[in-house]
Structures are given as C-alpha cells and as structure tokens.
Design brief:
33% helix, globular, alpha/beta, 7 strands
C-alpha cells in the first residue's frame, strides 16, 4: 500500500478540507447510521472526521489508522484532546492489527482507491466488524476526470469501476448493501451491515 502523494497530503491537511470533512462529508458518509460505541476509521488522513465523531458522541471510542506515517502524526494531533477515547496507529488497511469483531462501525472515506488491492481492505473491514456492525463511506469511481485528477500519483492508485463495489460487498456476504453513485457518477457512497448472526471473520 503506497504512502499518500505529496499533493494529496497537502490537500487533505489543509484547513478548508478539514472543516469540510468534519462538518459536511462525515454526515454524508454516515448516511444517518448510529456509530455505536467503538469506531475504526481506515485511511483516516488528517483525522478531521475522527475528531468530529468524537466531539459529536461523547462516549464514543475511535481507532484511527493510516498507512502514511506523516498522516498518522497529523491525525494524532487532531485527536490529541480526546485522551484515551482515541487511538492512532500506522496500519495497512489490507492487514489490520485488530481482533475479529472489534468494532461497531468501520469508516472508509475516499481511501480505497489508494489501496492497490482494495478488495483486501474491504475484507479486513468486514472481519473486524462485530455482527450487526456497519461498514460505511465513499470513494471515487474510475472515470476520465478522476484519472486526470490522480495523474500525478501514477500507479499508486487503483480506482474501482461502477458495479465492482457492489459485487465485492455481496461476495463478503454483508447485508443491507447500499451503493449510491453521486456527483455526476464520479463518487460512490456505500454502506453495508455484517449479518447479526455472522461468526467473527
């Protein structure tokens, strides 16, 4: 899994993005879902969304991960004021260092296209969800505008095509799958639930 490109890192740590992410993009990604008690955000970048979640839900605990050491450091600063309710660590989304069934919600916001084998990341997200827990988030879809936007990142991105996400979520035997294309078909917003009777993993 590659580290974030410098241009993308600069954008994601900017003040405007952090405000937008926490106040607008997070509710849009959650789609009204109750985060429960323990949330994992994979590829959390600056930690803006995790910080907003912690502010909005006083009893919530959030585990924040990113593959890029620089982003891990930035996220740690973002959630530093929340004490032991927040933990931050460097982790590969395709090999998460958490036990099966650990989280009520796994949040993935515009990070899967940075994982060359994003199917593995979805599999890991499903594994660490408790039965009845939710996977939610959004990501860009493969299209000429998005390929142009990520041109500088070269082979460090792999965008999914329309329909691929639905297929993968079904393959993982998740339920209540919702995938909605928006923003002129450039972005897919998704949510899925781990069956309440599922065994861990």
């Amino acid at each position: 899994m590659p580290e974030m490109h410098a241009a993308a890192r600069s954008f994601c740590t900017g003040r405007a993005y952090r405000a937008l992410a926490g106040r607008w993009m997070l509710p849009w990604a959650l789609q009204g879902l109750d985060p429960g008690d323990h949330v994992l955000e994979i590829g959390a970048g600056s930690g803006a969304m995790a910080a907003q979640l912690l502010r909005a839900h006083p009893r919530l605990r959030v585990a924040v991960t990113d593959y890029d050491p620089g982003m891990v450091a930035t996220a740690a600063r973002s959630v530093a004021g929340f004490g032991d309710r927040a933990s931050v660590q460097e982790a590969d989304a395709g090999a998460l260092p958490f036990a099966d069934g650990s989280f009520d919600l796994v949040l993935s916001c515009a990070m899967l296209h940075h994982v060359l084998h994003w199917e593995n990341a979805l599999g890991e997200a499903a594994r660490v969800l408790r039965p009845g827990g939710y996977l939610a988030g959004y990501d860009v879809l493969d299209s000429p505008p998005m390929r142009l936007l990520h041109l500088a990142e070269g082979g460090q991105v792999r965008m999914m095509r329309a329909g691929q996400l639905d297929v993968e979520l079904r393959r993982l035997q998740l339920t209540e799958i919702r995938v909605r294309r928006s923003a002129a078909g450039l972005v897919a917003r998704f949510s899925a639930r781990k069956h309440p009777g599922a065994c861990h993993g």
